[in-house]
Write a structure and sequence with these properties.
The protein is built from eight helices and no strands. By secondary structure, it is mostly helical.
């Protein structure tokens, strides 16, 4: 099984189970919501990257994510950087987290910083700890108020900030 196939299996199976009603009400949790958002964005992006460069399909999952994430965080567009930070935080392990932390010092614009804070808030929102998830929700609300993160649709903001259930 290729790394992309494994990653897609982790995304498609839960989505299928959700659609069939086989997953409990916990599917509306903030953790599931945040992870689903990142999983979908990452899988779609990696599929496009591999289509453009089939040699990348030969890389193991962690290497693929680290390479793609590092490339994305150097992009000019802040929304591309955000997707790179998502990849690195969710799938890059400790090396990915260190890359994200080190990249914060190199951000030049308020828009870039807002996108990084968005990803950090989303990461916190996905925590199993109530205090951490609540802090993530607060950070996301502050980021939304800046108006600088425009790739997130209004209904997703509402879901992240108001609707999804924090851990108990």
């Amino acid at each position: 099984m290729t790394p992309l196939t494994r990653m897609l299996a982790h995304i498609v199976l839960p989505a299928l189970l959700l659609g069939l009603g086989c997953v409990s009400a916990q599917a509306e949790s903030c953790r599931v919501t945040a992870n689903e958002m990142v999983n979908t964005a990452t899988a779609e992006l990696l599929q496009d990257v591999i289509k453009k460069d089939p040699e990348l399909a030969k890389l193991d999952e962690r290497t693929l994510v680290l390479e793609a994430g590092k490339k994305l965080i150097t992009a000019e567009r802040s929304d591309f950087k955000a997707r790179g930070w998502m990849m690195l935080l969710w799938y890059g392990g400790k090396p990915g987290g260190e890359i994200v932390a080190n990249s914060a010092e190199q951000l030049d614009t308020e828009e870039d910083r807002a996108h990084l804070y968005f990803v950090m808030g989303l990461f916190q929102l996905g925590s199993p700890k109530q205090e951490t998830a609540a802090a993530g929700r607060t950070l996301l609300a502050q980021v939304k108020d800046t108006g600088k993160v425009t790739f997130v649709p209004e209904d997703m903001w509402e879901l992240l900030i108001e609707t999804c259930d924090l851990p108990k």
